[in-house]
Write a structure and sequence with these properties.
Elements: E1 5-6, H1 15-19, E2 24-26, E3 36-40, H2 42-48, H3 57-63, E4 69-70, E5 76-78, E6 82-84, E7 87-89, E8 97-104, E9 110-116, H4 133-148, E10 155-167, E11 171-181, H5 187-194, H6 199-213, H7 223-245, E12 247-248, E13 270-271, H8 295-314, H9 318-347, H10 357-370, H11 375-385, H12 391-394, H13 399-413, H14 420-428, H15 438-451, H16 455-464, H17 475-478
Helix pairs in contact: 4-15, 4-16, 5-8, 6-8, 7-8, 7-9, 8-9, 10-13, 11-14, 15-16
Bound molecules: adenosine monophosphate (AMP) and magnesium ion.
Magnesium ion (MG) is lined by residues 255-256, 265.
Length: 494
């Protein structure tokens, strides 16, 4: 432990530490032997008010790997519980992470700067508290790509290599990710308190969460019920976004479901290549619990656990509380469906809503499943059909079936008075050309890990920074994985 303090320029206000005693332990990260700043997100650092210009790179690296503390900071490890693959663990917590600082950014928004891989804490159990370079680069890349795709997510602030060698199945370079979120309060945070039967503390956590994320309901008498409603809405929106870009999170345990509605903890996640509702990439998801198409229902499962924690706050009489909560949870599916339709209509270039749209969309998805069509390619190619391009048609083996669908789609489009060019622009703005394809992600990680070459990582980041804008010379970033890449399997990288 060290208490070396660095003047970071950050405007720190540690409300979590101040108000939520019992939900964390003060903790400082390990001092890395040779911290090296591999990547800094300058734009995000600027938003946060981090004094990059005034700080030597070595100091920044020491700060963003957890060994040093920013002036005014009170780093801590958060306690939380969680259902992991359905089984409840009453005690999880930041076992390899730290809340480095809670800052008020330049736009007066409160944001967490969080480190992953910063060393052991009292929550580490058998783990070493460390992270290795590959998964850290992966999380940085995926989170930034998701942000550019318009999906609520934690952001990547920095990647620091520590100079350590970490033992996994083989020796690997150690690294720390600095990431930024609206907060790191999770369903599991509420479960931690509820599991201890501390209703007073539960009210403090719920009121804190409401003040931080949902201030408009602060004065309401039924604010705890409203909290559930709002969290459900945010998760419905998030699920629709994931599904519309073909994202599979892989570990939707309740400790990885945020109250803010942000995607968190990019472990064994992946993007779909061919459209397959049953797609699972994670090696440990043997029961396919978190398959692509199951994500909305698994979110509801997690939200139901959240609702359970709120019952004693919603009404002293548990039966009454359940009666109030049940309709909110019952509405989730419809709320999700509404959000999903908004995303999918936009993907098909539809500006208005008609009741048959859901059939039109589902019919297309069925054809895509049958013919194992690449999800991203197809939606990007759809607007080309408007001007006679055959790219979309050529993605299907059963061309007759797709042509039939196309006729129905064209008829539907005829109900909307916008020009072909206008529609094509709108469609290109929601159907990405470039996503973090699994083979590309693996390629840049292996260049970094094996040759210490970070240029491919930088290049891929640059491509993904503008996912909707086709650019010359970037063809290979839009292509599907070569056959030789095979079936993709991901691991819970630590
Ligand atoms: P995750 O699956 O990444 O959400 O992590 C689940 C739990 O395991 C969290 O409490 C983590 O802090 C903990 N954990 C994961 N990897 C490690 C590690 N290498 N050392 C200590 N704790 C870990
Ligand atoms: Mg987690």
């Amino acid at each position: 432990m060290t208490d070396k303090v660095i003047d970071s320029g950050l405007n720190i206000d540690s409300s979590y530490a101040r108000e939520l005693e019992g939900l964390y332990v003060s903790f400082q990260g390990d001092l890395a032997p040779k911290p090296e700043l591999i990547k800094l997100n300058h734009a995000l650092a600027d938003e946060l008010g981090l004094a990059v210009e005034q700080l030597e790179e070595t100091k920044l690296a020491a700060l963003l790997s957890g060994g040093n503390v920013p002036v005014g900071g009170a780093p801590l490890a958060q306690a939380y519980a969680g259902h992991q693959f359905g089984g409840f663990s009453p005690q999880l917590g930041d076992g390899r992470a730290l809340l480095l600082a809670e800052v008020i950014d330049k736009k007066s928004a409160r944001r967490d700067i969080h480190l992953k891989g910063s060393g052991r804490t009292i929550f580490s159990r058998g783990g070493d508290g460390k992270a290795v370079l590959g998964p850290i680069l992966r999380e940085y890349l995926l989170a930034e790509a998701m942000h550019r795709l318009g999906v609520p997510t934690t952001r990547g602030l920095a990647v620091v290599t520590t100079g350590e060698t970490i033992m996994r199945s083989q020796p690997l370079p150690g690294a720390v990710l600095a990431r930024v979120a609206k907060s790191h309060i999770r369903v599991g945070s509420f479960q931690f308190v509820a599991a201890r039967g501390d209703t007073k503390k539960l009210a403090i956590l719920a009121d804190y969460t409401i003040a931080r994320h949902f201030p408009s309901i602060q004065q309401a008498d039924d604010r705890y019920l409203k909290l559930l409603i709002q969290v459900c809405e945010r998760q419905a929106f998030l699920m629709a976004k994931w599904m519309s870009v073909g994202f599979v999170h892989g570990v939707m345990n309740t400790d990885n479901i945020t109250i803010s509605g942000e995607t968190i903890d990019y472990g064994p996640c992946a993007f779909l290549d061919v459209f397959d509702p049953s797609a699972v990439f994670s090696s440990i998801d043997t029961h396919m619990r978190y398959a692509y198409a199951k994500q909305p229902s698994m979110a509801l499962w997690g939200l139901t656990r959240f609702a359970e924690t709120l019952l004693p706050l919603i009404d002293r009489d548990e039966k009454c509380a359940i009666e109030l909560v049940a309709p909110v949870l019952n509405d989730f599916e419809q709320a999700y469906q509404r959000q999903w339709l908004i995303c999918m209509r936009a993907k098909l270039g539809l500006q208005t809503a008609q009741s048959d749209d859901v059939t039109l969309i589902n019919d297309l998805l069925t054809l895509m499943v049958n013919d194992e069509v690449d999800f991203t390619h197809l939606f990007r190619a759809l607007s080309g059909l408007l001007v006679g391009s055959e790219t979309a048609l050529n993605l299907f083996a059963n061309k007759a079936a797709f042509k039939q669908w196309q006729v129905l789609w064209m008829e539907r489009l005829a109900d909307e008075p916008i020009t072909i060019d206008e529609r094509a622009v709108l469609m290109r703005n929601v159907n990405p050309m470039y996503i973090p394809r699994n083979h590309l992600v693996e390629e840049v990680i292996s260049a970094a890990e094996q040759q210490g070459d970070f240029k491919p990582f930088e290049k891929l980041l640059e491509v993904l920074d503008k996912p909707f804008t086709k650019r010359e010379g970037l063809n290979r970033f839009a292509q599907a994985a070569p056959e030789s890449f095979g079936a993709y399997e991901t691991f819970c990288g630590t």
